[in-house]
């Protein structure tokens, strides 16, 4: 439905109704707002004149038309980059688990166990613990 036919219907409705003055005022206000939405009203910024706004509208409409005319083409990353990103995406959870394991070993052995930090990541330390836990008595 076009704006003209919509406005004509509203005017006919106003003429047909024998309504109160308040309803007529509210319909007139609605008409003003509708015309403002169609571009009959522009807010001016302090540093811009009306002609500047018109130039900006022309530029923005030209840019929009150009964007609609040209289809968006997304460039693919090189194969090596896509492969690297795929590997990183798949390995992030195991890497986080390994970091948390090492942090837990350090916190448990050095901070909670009051042992020297030099021994925290030596293989012989954990071999000795293994032997203590699983030794036959």
User: What string, H for helix and E for strand, traces the elements in order?
Assistant: HHHHH
How many domains comprise the coordinates? 3
Unreliable spans: none
User: The biggest beta sheet, please?
Assistant: none
Helix fraction, binned, reads over 70%
Number of strands: 0
Could you say which overall geometry the principal axes of the C-alpha atoms support?
elongated
Strand content: under 5%
Straight-line distance between termini: 92 Å
Radius of gyration equals 37 Å
Assign the structural class, choosing from mainly alpha, mainly beta, alpha/beta, alpha+beta, or little secondary structure: mainly alpha
So how many helices? 5
| Averaged pLDDT | 75
Please supply descriptive tags for the structure shown above.
single chain; 137 residues; mainly alpha; 3 domains; 5 helices; 73% helix; 0% strand
How would you characterize the overall build of this protein?
The protein has helices at residues 3-16, 21-40, 50-69, 79-112, 123-134. The termini are far apart. The protein has 137 residues and is mostly helical. It has five helices and no strands. It is elongated. The chain folds into three domains: 1-41; 44-73; 79-134, no CATH class.
List the helices and strands and how they pair.
Blueprint: H1 3-16, H2 21-40, H3 50-69, H4 79-112, H5 123-134
What's the short story on this structure?
The chain has 137 residues and is mainly α.
């Amino acid at each position: 439905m076009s704006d003209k036919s919509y406005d004509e219907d509203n005017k006919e409705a106003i003429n047909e109704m024998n309504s109160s003055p308040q309803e007529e005022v509210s319909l007139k206000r609605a008409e003003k707002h509708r015309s403002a939405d169609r571009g009959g009203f522009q807010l001016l910024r302090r540093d811009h004149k009306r002609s500047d706004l018109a130039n900006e509208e022309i530029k923005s409409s030209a840019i929009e038309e150009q964007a609609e005319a040209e289809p968006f083409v997304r460039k693919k990353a090189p194969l090596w980059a896509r492969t690297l990103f795929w590997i990183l995406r798949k390995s992030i959870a195991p890497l986080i688990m390994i970091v948390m394991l090492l942090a837990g070993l350090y916190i448990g052995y050095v901070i909670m166990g009051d042992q020297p930090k030099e021994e925290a990541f030596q293989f012989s330390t954990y071999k000795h613990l293994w032997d203590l836990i699983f030794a036959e008595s």
